[in-house]
Amino acid sequence: MEWFESWFDSPYYHLLYQNRNDTEAEAFMSRLLQFLEMPPQATVLDVACGKGRHARYLAAQNLKVTGIDLSKQSIDYAKRFEADNLSFAVHDMRKVYQAEGFDYVFNLFTSFGYFDRYEHNLWAIQAITKNLKTNGVFVIDFMNAHKVIENLVEEEDKVMDGVLFVIKREVEDGVIVKKINLIDEEEGRNLKFEERVHGLRLSDFEDFFQKTGLEILHTFGSYHLEPYDMENSNRLIIVATKK
To answer: Which helix (H) or strand (E) element contains residue 242?
Structure first.
């Protein structure tokens, strides 16, 4: 079992990240949709959708949305919100979901770079490309790995609903490693998890895209769609099209 299979299906993962800002996410999606000028009823695949917060917003904008994620627990939760234009499925992003089935594919909130082997990350981009129709658009929202690594917070403690999370970060061969030791005294548990995300730069994505037939159209560095700057931007948001 790879690290993300156990961690993403753990209730402690959802506890640690429960305060993610839905208002900020919706504001970003609103700006992105306005920029993309997506037509009504366009088909959208949300890859690594988690519990479906972005997918639900997209569906509310009169789009036909499918969300996929490897975590059964997340998909079970997301399925509560299914509708005529919104569905969810457990699926591995390294495999094609529906060849040439979508006008748009989104991968949001640093939901990429989890696979230890380079070729597995490439497989994910290949599958994403195959899911797109010709001239379809792919949007990936990733961290600005350069800035994250340069300003790495090596250790922090968080208490969430009485559970103590001791988090340590380091960089191993270009991979940002977050080691999580949690203490749940009420349940008598002391557990350890790990997150491993490749510190991918714009040049890495350019290499992936060149290999898979994607062409970069725009890059942004924030959820306000400001220009990307490697030294100062918080995000690396790439808009690409399938040739």
So the answer is: strand 235-242
Contact present, 93 and 122 (Cβ < 8 Å) = no
Q: Which amino acid is at 117?
A: R
Q: C-alpha angle 148/54/89, rounded to 5°?
A: 110
Distances (CA, A) of 135 to 62, 105, 117, 129, 214: 21, 12, 29, 10, 9
Q: E-strand spans in 129-222?
A: 132-143, 155-160, 163-172, 175-184, 189-198, 214-220
- What's the whole-model pTM score? 0.92
Name the residue among 85, 89, 14 with its Cα closest to residue 47. Answer: 89
Which ranges constitute the DSSP H helices of 61-117?
72-78
pLDDT tens, position by position, 174-188? 999 999 999 999 999
Rounded distance, CA 123 to CA 112, Å?
A: 12
Q: Quick check: helix, strand or coil at residue 194?
A: strand
Cβ contacts of 85 within 8 Å, gap of 6 or more: 41, 59, 62, 63, 64, 65
Which of 171, 94, 106 minimizes the C-alpha distance to 132? Answer: 106
Considering only CA atoms, which of 72, 44, 47, 71 is closest in space to residue 58?
44
125-152: average pLDDT: 97
CB 194 within 8 A of CB 180: yes
Strand partners, 197: 176
Helix intervals (H) in 144-227: 145-150, 202-212
| DSSP letter (8 states) at residue 79 | G
